[in-house]
Structures are given as structure tokens and as C-alpha cells.
Amino acid sequence: MLDAAAPAQDARQAVLRVALPAHVRVHITDDAIRLLTGLDRAARLGRTAQAEAMLRALQDAPLATADLSAEDQLLLHQLEARGMLASSWWVGDRRLLCFEPIGAMGSRIPATAQGKLRLSPMAMLRPTATGFALLAADGAARLLLDTPLPDGLLDALAQGCDLPTLVVLGLPMPVARDLLRWGIAARVLTPPDTEPQPGWEFHDMLFHHWSNVGFLDLPAAATYRHLATHPAPWAPAPRDPAALPLPPPLPLPPISLADAAAQRRSSRDPGRKALTPERLSGLLHHIAAHNGSISGTLPDGTTRSLPTRPVPSGGAAQAVDVHVLPRSIAGLAPRVHRYDGAHHALVPLGHAQPAVDDGMGWMTIALVARFWRAQWKYERIAYRLMMLEAGALIQQTCLVGNAYGLSVCPWGALDARQFAEASGLDPWREGLLGGLFVWGART
What's the predicted TM-score (pTM) here? Predict the structure, then answer.
């Protein structure tokens, strides 16, 4: 821990080092220096031989600001104002604090921090190899705190603190000043009376912001990060011996897509005709049966043949399975079944349990993500892609159900715990995303 009794001495020992973060690239042109970010938003700076040399040096290793000329210091202020500079405070060979931009949203650092600040309701604390990282669900920078931390620092940040408070805790004055300034830029510190944006909860903001591509310069999309250590999870499964074959699908009535879309309503009309096995067969066939295949080449050169379904799926991973829980369908026990789209059959799961919800409808359709099928290929956006796939399955079920004259009602509050218990599935490997209730035919 820093010596709280001698902040002035620590201040003389503390050294500020700066570097360009990973998402900023230097491009030298004939008349200017352009700094490119992950969004290709460019900052245009005047070109001099000295500025060019300093920027190239910043790409290679951190520089101590005390060693830089006045001209270089001015350039650093320009970079800092644009959120294009990673800065850290050191005492000897130990880092105390680091501000690390991770995106091109312009994490602009204010010149000063006035009054008390506290941790934002949108802030989160994560462990790192050297200490902790403070991040915000809506931020584009990391504030890295290396251990050992001054006693009471996290408590002070949580309760609210100002510059004198941090100095009393043992931080050198310039380090304490930058902790507050950098915390504002990273959106992890806010005035005590600041409220989150109306309507946003922490988990919603975190998912929305961190699963989008563009705001943050972090690996995203099809990175195949597990290619070298795990086999592709898309090998076709053989027919399960316990699978129950479905009857031939009932032909769809002659209704146009335009009419089916125009007539679509979320309905809880119990209907006057039973939900027959033939109608169930047709419904499942038109929403999730395998209807072809595509070939894809992985980065290691191997080729995979992947099945397709009537609805889109990120990378054709088919990461969202369709499960049904029939309540009053001839020949089917009231238990969870997984639909096997390759063999048009139902595979019983778990044990017989009549309800995993409040019992609405003649049947519940549960949309269940096999997370690994998308996570193996996609980074940061895997869950987003599975939710999009679930949405496509819901709309397809509504359209086909309407064509069959069924009452269909999407439902976003199925009980995931009850479903896991009834199906016997591990909810962290195969988890419930949403579902629908289906009633008998209206006509």
C-alpha cells in the first residue's frame, strides 16, 4: 500500500506513461497524420517529423511524459481529448492505475473533476491478472486498478469521494486527480445524484452495448476462437432410438403469405377443434424441419456441411432447438420433447411433468439455445444471434399457426428453472430463451 503519510514523496516518485491503445492505428500521409480507430473514424493531426517520430514510438512502447518536449506534450493533450491515448501511473516497476480506451465512442477525458464522485450504477468490477478492472455497461474504456489497493479505496469510490479523500487514502495527488478524470471518461464514476438513463437496467445495457459491433474495438463476430482447442459442434446426430416418428404433415391451406401476415394476431382463443398430431406435425415441419444443406470452409481449411431450416440462423449453426410440451394431443405424453428436424420426430426428455408454466394452451413450444453451437464460432455476438434466431422462429410459428387456423400466443416469461427440471437439461448448456402457447384450431 502507498504511504498515506507521505503523499508528496510518492508524487515525486510516480511516473505517468502513455501509449496508443490497440484500436488506434497511425497512418502517415504527405501532409498530415491520421489516427484510425476501429470505426475508421479518423483524427487528423498536423504532420511534423517530431510528431511522426513520437507516434511511432507510442506504438512500440509506453513513453514517460516527463521525457517529452512541449510540442509532444501538446500532441498528447490532443490525443487524450479524443480518447485515443492509454495512460498509466507507475511507481518504480509497479503500475498503480491505467486508463485504457477500448472503443471509438470518444471516451473524452475532462480537464478536471469537480466535487464528489461515486461508482455509477452501471459500473462493474472484474478481476485481472494484476488487480481489478472497472468498466461501465455503457462505457468504452477500462479503468485498471492494480493491487495492492490503498485500504478503503473501493469503499470510498462506492460511497462517494473527492480529490482530498483519495489523497488521504494514500494516492499521490496527480494519481488521485487522474483516477477521477479517467473514471468520468470511462463512465464508471458519476456525481452522486446522477441517475441511469430512464428505462435501462444494468443487464439490459450491458447486453445491448457489449454485444453490438462497432462501439467497442474488441474481437467480435466470426472469430473461431475455439477452433484450435475444440472440434466443431455441428456434427449431425444419429436418430435417437427413443424418438417418436411424427405423422405426415397436414398440408397447409391455400393462404398467401400476405394474408397470413396480415391476419397474424397473438390469440388465446381455445378453439373448437383439437390440436391433432397431423397439425402438430405440419407446424413443426414448417418451422424447424431440415430442408437442405450448405457447405462452409473453416479457417483451418476443413469443410463442413450444415443443415438449413425455414428460418435464418447465424452461420447456419441452428443453435436454437424447438421443444414441445403437449397437454392434450393424442398419442403424446405430457412431457418435454425435443423436435428432431433431421428425422421429423419427437425425442422425449426428462420425466413426465404436466406443467412448466401456468398451463395455458394445448401445447407449449419452448425455444432452447444450445449455446456452444454459436459460441464456438462467434465472439461477443453469440447470444445476440441466438435471440435473433428465436425471434425468427416465433414469427414463423405465428404465421404457420395462423395458416392452420391455430391460436398462437408468444410468451416471454416461461419459467426457465421449471423447464430445466422437467427436461433434465443443463440450463447453462441448453437454456430457455422464450416460447409460445398453442391452442386448438379455431375452425
Answer: 0.84
